[in-house]
Every structure is written in structure tokens, then in C-alpha cells.
Amino acid sequence: MRVVIQRVSEACVEINNRVRSSIGSGLLVFLGVEEGDTLDDIVHLAYKVARLRIFNDAEGKMNLSVDDVNGQVLVVSQFTLLASTVKGHRPSFTRAARPEFGRMMYEMFVKQLEKELNIRVATGEFGADMKVHLVNDGPVTIIMDSRQKHF
């Protein structure tokens, strides 16, 4: 399971020219589910995302979590995070989870993150063609992979 986390001042997801979800200051989390991911991957990543200290404190140091700043969270499924570009020029997505499994894991991740933060987490729509608008604050972008537990 892989996440790309962006600290944002605002973000929204549009589907068919309609806003599905929007947030103000907080985290935009892109989630890619890989075949073989487990509940342990969900728990581990949700725990890390909820506690990631990438918001500035009074001294301007990244020392606060999204919870510390009463921020919002938007999670968007993105299977392309599992792309392999080792061979040729066309990405391969064979590592990405099948849609049924990916959807289940995505929904479980959102519920786990809501549990960790005790807030409602905004979402995109699994499998939809989405337009994601964001203002990256910093810019701050963090990548985590549950297969690399050393992060």
C-alpha cells in the first residue's frame, strides 16, 4: 500500500463537473492498493498519516500533526501509484490490486483514518474519472509505502 500525502491549504475532487468533496487546510492523501496488502498495512499507514508532523508550529518548524492543527483530510484512490516503469515507456499496473479488493481496502483505510483522527474524512469516488484540484502548501509532499516499514 502506498500513499502520497500533500499538505494543502485547500483541495477538492470533481466528478462530471460536480464537486464531490472539498477540504480547507489539511492533508490530501492519494492511496494506491497493491495485491497482497493486508489489514496490518491499513492500520500502520493510517496511524502514520494521522500522526505525521508536517504542519508548522509557532516557530515555523514542521512539528504539528493534522490533528494538532484541526485540519481536514481528503483521501483519493489512485492505482497509478503502483505503476512500474522498469520496462519500456508504457507503465505497467500489474502490482495494483484488482478493483474489488482495491475498493474494499480503500474504504477500510478511510474508516481506519477516521478512527485515528476522530473526524469525518472526505473522499473521492473509487474507480471514477476524477479531477483533483489542490493548493499544495509549502510545497510539502511525503511518500510512504507499507512494504518499507522503515519510514
Key terms:
single chain; 151 residues; alpha/beta; D-tyrosyl-trna(Tyr) Deacylase, Chain: A; 6-stranded mixed sheet; two-stranded antiparallel ribbon; 2 helices; 8 strands; 21% helix
Helix and strand content put the structural class at alpha/beta
Which value, in Å, is the CA radius of gyration? 15 Å
Provide the β-strand percentage band. 35-45%
Text of the CATH class = Alpha Beta
Secondary-structure map with pairings?
Layout: E1 2-15, E2 18-23, E3 26-32, H1 39-51, E4 55-56, E5 62-64, E6 72-77, H2 99-117, E7 122-123, E8 130-145
Parallel strand pairs: 3-6, 6-7
Antiparallel strand pairs: 1-2, 1-3, 1-8, 4-5
Short characterization:
With 151 residues, this protein is α/β, with parallel strands linked by helices. Helices cover 21% and strands 37% of the residues.
Q: What can you see in these coordinates?
A:
With 151 residues, the protein is of the alpha/beta class. It contains two helices and eight strands; from the N terminus they run E-E-E-H-E-E-E-H-E-E. The protein has helices at residues 39-51, 99-117, and strands at residues 2-15, 18-23, 26-32, 55-56, 62-64, 72-77, 122-123, 130-145. Strands 1, 2, 3, 6, 7 and 8 form a six-stranded mixed β-sheet that branches. Strands 4-5 form a two-stranded antiparallel ribbon. Strand 6, helix 2 and strand 7 (122-123) form a beta-alpha-beta unit. Helix 1 packs across helix 2 (99-117). The longest helix is centred in the C-terminal third of the chain and has 19 residues, at 99-117.
